[in-house]
Amino acid sequence: MWNEPYLETCCRSALHRLTLVGPHGRPPGLKDGPCLMRLTTMGLARPREDGRFEITDAGRARHRSEILKRQAA
How far apart are CA 15 and CA 6, in angstroms? Predict the structure, then answer.
């Protein structure tokens, strides 16, 4: 049974980019800013003190299960 909110394609891409940038984080003010804010409200990303966004543990799990299509550990 599906019990997670749907991620639009743009938000799935933003989540994937968060995994690619690693500890550098995504800077604010980019085109994916609205998606980063949505991911934040879903608990999949968080803003850092320097204004950049980073992925959360929940975001990593969602990335594994939905984008990489692997079973979340």
Answer: 13
